[in-house]
Each structure stands twice: as structure tokens, then as C-alpha cells.
Design brief:
heterodimer, A: alpha+beta, Beta-Lactamase, 5 domains, 5-stranded antiparallel sheet, 20 helices, about 60% helix, rod-shaped, B: alpha+beta, 7-stranded antiparallel sheet, 3-stranded antiparallel sheet, about 20% helix, elongated
């Protein structure tokens, strides 16, 4: 597991790009501000851009913070690890940062308002007004003085002849310090001129209001400011018309205000004007400062909040990684590697976590290898157990199955697949044989026997079974201690041993008995031949009956010895291909004539036209089975005595076809106590039987690689089922399989 | 270009600033320039291959202006003339764009209204405000274009407009008025076609 922020370098680059962008915007704003401060005219040009950049910054920060907060709320609600720590840290940082900022902002706002208001206190305004009035008063005094003198001079001009006007003007100008004196007539033509500057031949043009005022015969006085801070007092007065000509004349005089007074007055005027302009700016100034302060506050606050969120996330990220890593380890992912955030305590913690996961990974790998080894061993053991012909059961004290191999189920005639975890008594409910076995185990366990080796005989409808069973306790303590029970079905082995023993008995019997029989018979016949003629009739009768008895019994014994000889003879088969159904038909037809009231029915299946077997031996099988059935029906009370012979072709389960011969009768059936031993020699329920018929049949069937079963039909009567391979190779393999058993028989 | 963009940015920025200022206790100033501000008439006369502008402008004369002037505030009066060559498939080309800038102030010491031309340094004084405004509204013989610039087959339009604003502040202080639009008015364009 690798954390998201490690697996997403593009996101990291995006963060760097955003940081660069905002840094560039801030740097641009600062550069513009610095440039504007250096050059005030630039400030006017750049201020919109500065404001725009700041607004972009505010909006951008707001958007970023909004996204961060939304993500934080989302994570908090989704209980994302670390989100609560982040939320707490952001809240703490936010309160710690925003509260002082707001306090400073409110204080600065109040200070700003009071500071700017203090610039425009009424005392300052009053002082300026007073200074202004003083300046005006000082200049007015001069203006009125010049006006009075000009009026008086104009009145005196009424007696001055025209040719002396210029001189009079000039002397008056010099006397009063005027810069220019001009005499106009009613048509505003210059009649005389005296100027301080001799080069001036054209007087300054009078303003329109002057002319208007003079036309009303009123003197004109005005102070006119000039460029450069100079003041000119312009005075005009009508000249008295003493001649009665009706011509109107006017004297216009220009006086300069003394430089010092003009300078002071201009200074007052400039100050008053600047104050007026600043007063106009009072509210805009305050608003501008408010705006600037608000923007600065917003930027600082938003930057602080963003910084708080970023710092909290950076702080909580290792915690988040640790929680995610712990969860991953809890789910079994030991490959978790967390990035080292720093070299502080959290870094040490992350380093320790990585070290722990590394050790866990190693231990996990070691455990996995061990588990795999155990699994391999278990699989190997399972294969071995599955291939064993010996049944193996591992159970605990409560007889709960832990291991049961396939052979155990086959031997017990029960399906033990999926038996693990189930109790043996439950599994044995459907199998009589298995039930007997479990009962035998329970008896031994109840007796406290933990290690034993015994033969257990089981009787079931399928026949008698002998099991060689061994029990060994498994290592363990208390109730966990279990047992392994190993058992072999030695029924076939015992049978083979019996067969071998009987074969040896038969061979010896045939050998030891057959030899003296012929001399006995010949001796009896010679006695009869020699003595019979010379003996009295009474004795002759006795001799005749005695020798007949001897000969008859010897003959009987010969037949018995021949039967034993047949049973004990070495297998020497002559395999030919023939039709089984045809042979069955011949034998049945032969016995129908001797069967009397007994019906012999045939049910011949298809596909049995050619089997590879010894035709004579197969005929002997059929003979013996039919004779056995017919003899069993003798003396029976049924109205219909019936022997049914049926053949069919079956699949042996291995893909190989096999011939099945089924001989059934409706007689009394096999006695239950003999069911497991009906194929043993000298086992018979008939008074005259040798007890070798079925034993020979079994021997021939096994020599052919076949199998024979005998049981009773549910509706009554015996049933013998013979299966024979129809191909020679299969027969040979089946016969070889029984080879070791025969060897065991000879060895035993 | 920066200047043009600067001008185009002002309006939206004003709006943004106004929104931001809602957060602060700001005083709302009423428009002090209520009244007629228009170019009543204008024409150009060709004198010795020079087109000279003659125009008559009506400036508002309100108590607010008088009071502001009395408080020492300088009011700027601008007359802008723009001559453009009309183009069919594209924007009109500006041939000339001139501004006549003058400032009106009340000189408290002399009790006179002073009209000052910052470019030439000339100034005129008037006893009354109407006389000063009459003077400012009368533009005669203002050379705006020389005849050789014009092409015989082209079509030209001349536009004249007047503006008034509270001015003559230091640039740094004037910038403070950036987001207040009172005391700054511009008349509609008075346009006519120029036939050569």
C-alpha cells in the first residue's frame, strides 16, 4: 500500500504550480506598489492593476479555502482518518489567527477614522479662514488706498490740459508706485499712457466688468492674481468732466502688491486651497484606507486560514498515513511503506512503523513458507492416504472425524467424503458394517484402551468381513488428544489362506487316498471272484453284498477324490473364443431334461457372442451352479420351482466390458450363517454334497480373473452372480492381481 | 494600451470595490454635478489650411460647484475633439484626438475666479462664476487639424465632448478618487461629418 499523496506526483506538481502562480501575483502586486510609491503619477495608472491583483488574490484564496474546507467537511463526515485532527487544528489555528486580526482591524479602523478626522479639525479650518481674512484685509487696505488716490487723481485730471496729460500721468504713476496708468475715453481709446515699462506702447486691455462698472459711473477696484504668485490691484475711476463737453474719460491704474505681502497672501491662498481639496478627500481618503485595510485584512486572514489548513493537513498527513497503514496491516497487507514526512517525532514514528511492517513482512513470508511446506506435506500425506488400501481414520475422544481416507470409506461401505468434522456415529447410520465398527471402537475407547491392535469381525448382509485394526493415540493434551485408527480388510486374505489350505488338503487327500482305493477295489473284486463260487449261498450272499458295498464306496470315494483333485489341480486353461449365450443355452437344455418339475428360464443379453475363456471350465461353472440350484430346490414345497439364468454385458467401471452370469432360484436360499463362507470347501447345507461345488466354481472364476458373489434374493431364493472379463488381457490382469494372495496362501 | 485597459478596468473595478466597501461604513456622496453638461454647438472653419474649432459648451452651475470652489477645490474642464476617418469594413481610424484642459479655481484672497491653462500657463480672472463658466464654454479658433492630413475621397467625422471633474489634486491623492464616480462627468459626443 502506498499513500495517495505519494502515488500522485501530478497533484504535488499542481500544488507547486498554484504556489508559483500566487507567488507571482503577489510579487507583481508588490512591484507595482513599489513603482507607484516611487512615482505618484504611476500610482494612479497602476492602482487598478494593484487592486485587480489583490482582488484576484482574495478571490483565488477564497476559492482555495472553500475547496479545502469542503474537502475537510466531507472527510470529517466520512470519518476519514486524520480529518478530526485536521479540523481541530484548523479551528484552533483559525481562532488564534482570525481573532487577533479582527481586533487589530477594528482598532486600526477606529484609529484611522479618528486620525483622519483629526486632520480636519475645526480649529485648523478656522485658523486658515482667519489667515485668509487677514490677507484679504491687508490687501483690501492697499486696494482702498490705491482706489482713493486713483479717484482723487482722476478728479484732478479734469483741469489738466490735454498736452500735459501724459506728464501728469507719469508723475502720478511715479508718485504712487503704480506700474501702469492709462487714460481712456468713452470709446475705450487710449488718450494717455504711463507705464513702468517704457517699451509698452499698448496698455493691458481692461476686463469687461470694469467697463460695465465705469459705464455706470462707478469706480472699479479689483485685485487680480497673476501667474507666479503676483497680485495686481486694478483701479479705475472716472475723470470729472469740468469742461462740460460731455466726453467721458477714465483713469485705469495698475498697482503691484508688495512682494512680501503677495507672497504671504499667496501662501495662505495655496494652503487654503490644498486644505479645501484635502477636505474634499476626507471621506474618499477614509474609504480608501478602509478598503486597503479591509483588503489587507482579508488577504492576511485568508492566507492565514489557508496556511492553517495546509499546515494542519501537513501535520495530520503522517497520522492519516499511519492510520491507513495500520488498517492495511490489519487486513494483511504487510507491504505498506509510508513516506518519511520529516526527521521529527512523527518521522521517527513513521520510521518505526516502516520498520515494524518490514519485520512483519519477513515474518509473514517465513510463516507463508512454513505454511506452504506444511501444505505440501499435508497434500503428500493426503495423496499417500488416498492411495493406501488401508483405511485410516483420525478421530478425537468424541469420535469426531479429522481425517478419513478413501480406503476407509470403501472398506466400510460408506461415503466418507466430507466426513471431516462429523461424528462417526452419525456417519455410520446408513451402513450396518460401519455401525458395527464404530460400536467396536466405542467399546474400546469407553474401556480406556488407547493403543491396541486387534482383528474385528463384522457381519453384515453383504457378508462377513474381517478387519485387522490398530489404534494409536496422537500427540496432544487433554480433550484435544486424538487417535489414529488404521484398519485393513483381511477378509480376502483370510479367504485366500483358507483356499490355499483347502487346496493343500485336497491335493494331499487326493494323493493319499486315491492310491489305496484301486487296490481296495481290486482286492474286494478278487475276494468276490475267488470265494463266491465255493461258498454256501447264505455266505455267498453276505460276501456279495459286502464286496458290492466296498466297491460302491470305493467308487464314491474315487469320485470324491477326483473332486478334490479337480479342486486342487493347477490352473491349465485353454482359452478360446466362443459365444457365452450359446454355451448357457446348451447347458440349460441339457439340464431341462433332468430337471423334472423345475423350470429353467433363460434371459440372454446382447453382445456376448464372443468371449475369451476356457469353454470347458465355463461349462463346469454353469454345471455346478445349475446342479447346486436344482439340488437346493429338491424337497421344496413350491408349486413352481424355478431356476433363472440370465446373462448381460456390463461396464466394469473402468471402461472395460464384462460378462455377467446370474443364476437365481426360488428355493430356501443360503443359510444366513453360511453366507460368508459358501465358497469355502466342505461348506454345504445338503446332506449328500461334497461341499466342493461352489469352491471349484469360485476357483475357476478367479482363474479367469472374474468375481463371484452369493446372496439371498429379497423375495426368497439364492442368487449367485458371476462376472467374467470378456477380453484375455483383462482376464490375465485380474488373475495376476490374485497371484500374491495365492503366494500368501502358500507362505501362510 | 495599458492606459486604455486601465480605463476599461475602472468601471468593473469600481463595482467590485463598491461591493467590498459594503463591508465598511462608507459615506455615500450625492452627485454634485447635477445639471446640463452638453456641447451646444460646434463647427470647424478652415483658415489657411488649418481647421479651427469653434464650440459652445454649457457647463452646469450648481451651488455644490460654488461651494466646492469656495472651499478651495479646483475644478477641471476638458474639451475633447476626436476626428476619425470612416471605414466600411473596420473600425474608424482616429486621425486626431486632442484635449483642451483648463482649470477653474476660486481665489479667495482676491475674491475672483481664476481660469488657468496648465499647458500654456495663461490664466484669466473673473469676478463671477457665470463669467468664468461663459469663458470656459466659449472655444474659438482652436486649431485641431491641418488640411493636408485629410484625403479627398475619404469621409470624416468630428466629435466634440466636454468633461468636468474635481481635480488639480496630486496624482497620488487623485487616485483615491478612483472608485468614486461623483465629480466626474462627461457629456455626450457632439458629432458631425466633415466634408473636404
Amino acid at each position: 500500500m502506498v499513500p495517495d499523496h505519494v502515488a500522485a506526483p501530478s497533484r504535488r506538481w499542481s500544488s507547486y504550480a498554484q504556489g508559483l502562480l500566487w507567488g507571482a501575483i503577489g510579487l507583481a502586486a508588490l512591484l507595482m506598489l513599489a513603482n507607484g510609491v516611487r512615482n505618484s503619477s504611476e500610482f494612479s495608472r497602476l492602482e487598478p492593476w494593484i487592486l485587480l491583483l489583490n482582488l484576484v488574490g482574495v478571490i483565488g484564496l477564497t476559492v482555495l479555502i472553500g475547496r479545502k474546507l469542503w474537502q475537510l467537511v466531507h472527510d470529517y463526515r466520512a470519518h476519514v482518518p486524520g480529518s478530526r485532527l485536521t479540523a481541530r487544528t484548523v479551528t484552533t489555528f483559525g481562532v488564534l489567527v482570525v481573532a487577533p486580526l479582527v481586533i487589530v482591524y477594528l482598532f486600526s479602523l477606529d484609529f484611522l477614522n479618528r486620525g483622519i478626522d483629526s486632520w480636519f479639525r475645526i480649529e485648523v479650518k478656522q485658523g486658515l479662514n482667519d489667515a485668509l481674512l487677514l490677507s484679504r484685509a491687508a490687501i483690501d487696505v492697499r486696494m482702498r488706498e490705491y482706489g482713493f488716490r486713483t479717484e482723487r487723481f482722476a478728479a484732478s485730471l479734469g483741469f489738466v490740459p490735454a498736452d500735459q496729460l501724459v506728464n501728469r500721468l507719469d508723475s502720478e504713476r511715479r508718485a504712487t508706485g503704480a506700474t501702469e496708468m492709462v487714460l481712456f475715453d468713452g470709446a475705450q481709446r487710449v488718450l494717455a499712457l504711463s507705464s513702468e515699462n517704457a517699451a509698452d506702447v499698448v496698455p493691458s486691455s481692461p476686463p469687461a466688468e470694469l467697463l460695465r462698472q465705469l459705464s455706470e459711473h462707478r469706480p472699479y477696484m479689483a485685485i487680480e492674481p497673476e501667474a507666479g504668485g503676483q497680485y495686481v490691484i486694478r483701479v479705475a475711476a472716472p475723470v470729472s468732466d469740468l469742461t462740460g463737453s460731455g466726453d467721458r474719460r477714465y483713469v485705469l491704474a495698475l498697482y503691484e502688491v508688495p512682494p512680501q505681502l503677495a507672497q504671504l497672501s499667496e501662501s495662505v491662498q495655496q494652503t487654503y486651497s490644498q486644505y479645501g481639496e484635502l477636505a474634499v478627500l476626507r471621506e474618499p481618503l477614509k474609504n480608501s484606507f478602509r478598503l486597503t485595510l479591509t483588503l489587507v485584512l482579508l488577504l492576511a486572514m485568508l492566507a492565514a486560514i489557508y496556511g492553517a489548513i495546509y499546515s494542519a493537513q501537513q501535520l495530520a498527513r503522517p497520522v492519516h498515513d499511519l492510520i491507513e497503514g495500520t488498517r492495511a496491516v490489519g487486513k494483511g497487507d504487510f507491504g505498506t511503506r509510508l513516506p518519511l514526512p520529516s526527521r521529527d517525532e512523527l518521522g521517527f514514528l513513521v520510521h518505526s512503523f516502516n520498520d515494524m511492517t518490514k519485520r512483519l513482512r519477513r515474518a509473514h513470508a517465513e510463516a507463508r513458507r512454513s505454511r506452504e511446506t506444511v501444505e505440501q506435506e499435508r497434500e503428500r500425506l493426503a495423496i499417500i492416504l488416498a492411495r493406501l488400501s488401508t483405511g485410516v481414520l483420525a478421530v478425537d475422544r468424541r469420535l469426531t472425524v479429522h481425517i478419513a481416507n478413501e480406503a476407509a470409506g470403501l472398506i466400510m461401505g460408506a461415503d466418507l467424503r466430507g466426513a471431516t468434522g462429523r461424528a462417526l456415529p452419525d456417519l455410520a447410520r446408513d451402513s450396518d458394517r460401519f455401525g458395527q465398527f464404530v460400536a467396536a471402537l466405542a467399546v474400546r475407547f469407553a474401556a480406556g484402551r488407547e493403543e491396541w491392535r486387534e482383528q474385528i469381525d463384522l457381519d453384515s448382509p453383504g457378508g462377513h468381513r474381517a478387519l485387522m485394526c490398530a489404534c494409536t493415540p496422537l500427540p496432544g493434551e487433554g480433550g484435544d488428544r486424538g487417535y489414529v485408527i488404521v484398519f485393513d480388510d483381511i477378509t480376502a486374505l483370510l479367504q485366500a489362506q483358507r483356499d490355499a489350505a483347502w487346496g493343500e488338503v485336497a491335493r494331499r487327500l487326493a494323493h493319499e487316498i486315491k492310491n489305496p482305493l484301486t487296490p481296495i477295489q481290486l482286492s474286494a473284486e478278487r475276494l468276490r471272484r475267488r470265494l463266491l463260487a465255493g461258498m454256501p449261498p447264505e455266505d455267498a450272499g453276505i460276501l456279495q453284498r459286502s464286496t458290492d458295498t466296498i466297491v460302491q464306496q470305493v467308487e464314491t470315494m474315487k469320485q470324491m477324490v477326483n473332486a478334490f483333485s479337480e479342486y486342487a489341480r493347477a490352473p491349465d486353461m485353454k482359452l478360446t473364443g466362443f459365444s457365452l449365450n450359446e454355451l448357457v443355452g446348451e447347458v440349460a437344455e441339457l439340464y431341462r431334461s433332468q430337471a423334472g418339475r423345475t423350470e429353467i428360464g433363460l434371459d440372454l443379453g446382447q453382445g456376448l457372442d464372443r468371449i475369451a475363456a476356457d469353454r470347458g471350465r465355463i461349462r463346469q461353472i454353469l454345471n455346478n451352479l445349475l446342479v447346486n440350484a436344482l439340488e437346493a430346490l429338491e424337497g421344496c414345497v413350491q408349486e413352481v420351482r424355478k431356476v433363472d439364468i440370465s446373462t448381460r454385458l456390463e461396464d466394469a467401471g473402468t471402461g472395460e466390458p464384462q460378462a455377467v452370469i446370474l443364476v437365481c432360484d426360488n428355493g430356501p436360499g443360503f443359510p444366513r450363517e453360511l453366507l460368508g463362507r459358501v465358497f469355502d470347501p466342505y461348506v454345504t447345507s445338503k446332506p449328500k454334497g461334497t461341499g466342493l461345488g461352489l469352491a471349484i466354481v469360485k476357483k475357476i472364476v478367479e482363474e479367469h480373473g472374474g468375481h463371484i458373489d452369493a446372496d439371498n434374493r429379497p423375495e426368497g431364493g439364492a442368487r449367485v452372480r458371476v462376472t467374467l472379463p470378456i477380453r484375455e488381457a483383462v482376464r490375465a490382469a485380474g488373475a495376476r492381481d490374485r497371484g500374491p494372495a495365492m503366494k500368501k496362501e502358500s507362505l501362510g | 494600451m495599458l492606459g486604455a485597459l486601465n480605463a476599461s478596468l475602472k468601471a468593473p473595478l469600481r463595482s467590485l470595490c463598491a461591493v467590498l466597501l459594503l463591508l465598511t461604513p462608507c459615506a455615500v456622496t450625492a452627485d454634485a454635478l447635477d445639471g446640463v453638461l452638453q456641447v451646444r454647438s460646434a463647427y470647424v472653419a478652415l483658415e489657411q489650411s488649418v481647421f479651427q474649432l469653434h464650440a459652445r459648451v454649457d457647463y452646469p452651475m450648481t451651488p455644490a460647484i460654488s461651494a466646492a470652489l469656495a472651499d478651495g477645490v479646483v475644478v477641471s474642464f476638458d474639451v475633447e475633439v476626436r476626428i476619425q476617418r470612416t471605414r466600411r469594413l473596420w473600425f474608424d481610424a482616429t486621425i486626431a484626438d486632442l484635449t483642451l484642459h483648463r482649470e477653474l479655481a476660486y481665489h479667495t484672497v482676491s475674491d475672483r475666479y481664476v481660469v488657468h491653462d496648465p499647458r500654456s500657463g495663461d490664466q484669466q480672472t473673473f469676478a463671477t462664476l457665470p463669467a468664468a463658466l461663459m469663458y470656459l464654454g466659449t472655444i474659438d479658433n482652436w486649431p485641431v487639424l491641418v488640411e493636408p492630413v485629410l484625403q479627398p475621397d475619404d469621409h470624416y467625422t468630428i466629435g466634440v465632448r466636454a468633461g468636468i471633474r474635481r481635480g488639480h489634486l496630486p496624482s497620488s491623492l487623485r487616485a483615491l478618487l478612483f472608485w468614486t464616480n461623483d465629480w466626474h462627468r462627461v457629456s455626450d459626443w457632439f458629432t458631425w461629418s466633415l466634408t473636404t
